[in-house]
Amino acid sequence: MFNIRQYGDPVLKQVTTEVTDIDGTVASLIERMIATMYDAPGSGLAANQIGISKRLFVYDAGDGPKAIINPRIVESDGEWTYEEGCLSVPGLSWEITRPNAVHLVGLDLDGNEISIETDEFEGRVFQHEMDHLDGILLIERLDDDQRKKAKKILLKRQIKADGPDPDGLRRLLGFSR
Predict the structure, then answer these.
(1) Binning pLDDT at 50, 70 and 90, where does residue 168 land?
(2) Is residue 129 annotated as a catalytic residue, yes or no?
(3) What is the pTM of this model?
(4) What distance in Å separates the CA atoms of residue 80 and residue 166, rounded to the nearest whole number?
């Protein structure tokens, strides 16, 4: 299993790169990502959440684990508000409005093209993981007041866990001492 990178880790802000070779290494990575996702526990996990800047994610929206490589959302429609959390911002969740229906395309582990039209929870998981792959964190989907409150909570957690600001989280969050 992998350690899940937390808010403030620079890898979470980077846009991931496409997977060019789907081989045994990718299969092993996906297997370990699924184990990490279940252990967390979560419904999805993007590769950059474990420090690997590749364009793939794993998920389980209720019918078993799956992986999507080089995903793209090609259509979206409607609007749905739902309480959403994130493994990289543990213990916090917010009502987030996103499109309700999405059409996602990508590749499966065998390199075959896949096309999935879905809505509600599975569509939300796809959008959340796509945000990760594009370097966008859930906290960036909040309004200004929510974001300020969330950053204060995250800063307090960091200070409590690590004492003085050893990794520069205060600077990353825009706080000064």
Answers:
(1) low
(2) yes
(3) 0.87
(4) 39
